[in-house]
Amino acid sequence: MSKWFGVMTVCVGLFLSGCDMNRSVLKIDMYNSEGDSLGTATLTEGADAVDVKLSLTGLEPGLHGIHVHEFPKCEGPDFKSAGSHLNPDGKNHGLLNPDGSHLGDLPNIEADSSGAVEADVTISGATLKDGKTSLLRDNGTSLIIHQGQDDGVSQPAGNAGERIACGKIQVDEAQKQDAPSDPTEDGEQKMKE
């Protein structure tokens, strides 16, 4: 009996450890309020953090606030459907706040003179695994870019201006990025000519 219990324990442990494997890297699309693609954000599970690599075009040159918001919804034109900043600990806004910040508060990003952004930001304390600080909790969250820069202290959102870009952080959305192409056309096998 104890032999089978040990075997079952190992099998269940291996199964559960594999549950988070598909969450270690997520690539999401970012869109403006007209639904045009601006590029991608690649989220990678790190040590007590999630690293985000941004590759974007089409922004106004200058600094922009960027935050993780509480719902995986990107309904234009204002992206208010994404809710407030992700804040599981009930803290005040701002990376410069001496009492701590929202989990979703991130450093400003800078678009160059052509409107392009190639940047890496870290979401300290976040995870892509299960838990209170998961970016995939309750079906996911969203990544929002604002019109202006976040001042790091003003409540509730740093006076960063309008929400101008959004991407859904959820496993389903990320898997669409890597979905294989369909070898059939209208359900019929393509014929070689």
UniProtKB/TrEMBL annotation:
**Top-level taxonomy:** Bacteria, Bacillati, Bacillota, Bacilli, Bacillales
Q: Which family does it belong to?
A: Belongs to the Cu-Zn superoxide dismutase family.
Q: What is the E.C. number? A: 1.15.1.1
Q: Among its keywords, does the record have Zinc?
A: yes
Task: Give the first-level EC class, as a single word.
Answer: oxidoreductase
The protein in question is named Superoxide dismutase [Cu-Zn]
What does it catalyze? 2 superoxide + 2 H(+) = H2O2 + O2
Alphabetically, the GO molecular function entries are: copper ion binding; superoxide dismutase activity
Quote the Gene3D superfamilies the UniProt record gives.
Superoxide dismutase, copper/zinc binding domain
Q: Where is this region: Disordered?
A: 170-193
Q: How is the cofactor bound?
A: Binds 1 copper ion per subunit.
Keywords, in A-Z order: Copper, Metal-binding, Oxidoreductase, Zinc
What SUPFAM superfamilies does the record point to? Answer: Cu,Zn superoxide dismutase-like (SSF49329)
Chain ranges of the Superoxide dismutase copper/zinc binding domain: 39-169
**What is the documented function of this protein?**
Destroys radicals which are normally produced within the cells and which are toxic to biological systems. May play a role in favoring mycobacterial survival in phagocytes.
Q: What is the source species?
A: Pontibacillus litoralis JSM 072002
Cofactor(s) it depends on:
Cu cation; Zn(2+)
* InterPro entries for this protein: SOD-like_Cu/Zn_dom_sf, SOD_Cu/Zn_/chaperone, SOD_Cu/Zn_BS, SOD_Cu_Zn_dom
